[in-house]
From TrEMBL:
Xaa-Pro dipeptidyl-peptidase-like domain mapped to chain residues: 33-177
Family annotation (InterPro entries): AB_hydrolase_fold, Polyketide_trans_af380, Xaa-Pro-like_dom
Protein name: Alpha/beta hydrolase
Keyword set includes Hydrolase: yes
Top-level taxon of origin: Bacteria
Swiss-Prot/TrEMBL keywords: Hydrolase
Source organism per UniProt: Butyricicoccus pullicaecorum
Chain segments annotated as transmembrane: none
GO MF: hydrolase activity
Amino acid sequence: MEEKLNLTSEWDKTFAKSPKVDHQKVTFHNRYGITLAADLYMPKDAQGKLPAIAVSGPFGAVKEQSSGLYAQAMAERGFLTIAFDPSFTGESGGMPRYVASPDINTEDFQAAVDFLSVHDQVDPERIGIIGICGWGGMALNAAALDTRIKATVASTMYDMTRVTAKGYFDSEDSEALRYEKRKALNEQRTVDYKNGTYARAGGVVDPLPEDAPFFVKDYYDYYKTNRGYHARSLNSNDGWNVTSSLSFLNMPILQYSKEIRSAVLLIHGEKAHSCYFSKDAFKQLTGDNKELMLIPDAVHTDLYDRVDIIPFDKMACFFNTYLK
């Protein structure tokens, strides 16, 4: 039995509702029994079995933000899509709240494929996925594992296990620094257990320091302003549990990305601080069905919601080519 979730009935997205698609709330469960909440978008007057796409991300966001925008835009282009909240976040189930996992969040994508595979209006042989930011890495991880996924787009991708264990630009890649991270996080475990609550790491810093790095200002401009703020978004509010980082220190993803046989499109802003994640991931991919697309002058969050920059038509062409 799936957990009964309390889903909002109002349109509470950070983007306008499209008149070209129908929308409804749906739920499905993953292999660990966690019930996930999703928004389903379908082209109006759709006939027959459709190609389908599951979308999630960014890391610490909710489906009412970027993933929903992507899902709606792809539905406008003829796909049945779902944008889902990962386990423990947003309107999805799972306890404790506000925790992430390389394993469970990869499984969340596979559970979305489960749901789409048995949907009456989906062709199960034509299913793709889109991962944004930290869920771009999860999407590639899922593509390496799930042979039902025929095509994957990773947009403005982060490898959350790499950045957690090695720091930005691998500047903290040493045993000594990782030991200090482990020590601090395990001490926090003791405090949390004693208190009976989980300390939160804090979302995007607010107020914004004048000397904040550009990428922090970039995140602030999205998550902390009317542009992208959402009441259920971890990044917009109190962030993840502090100890959520533990498994990311010890369980690197993308170990078998070179074995992905299905099609992959990596999209990144040329001026994004995170661009090296996509460039390095692309080097590991093999086969003639892999592509890296760099968007001139774009920074990380431009690919969250800048519809004038996000290459939706390119993505539609990619999926139409490989979801045959």
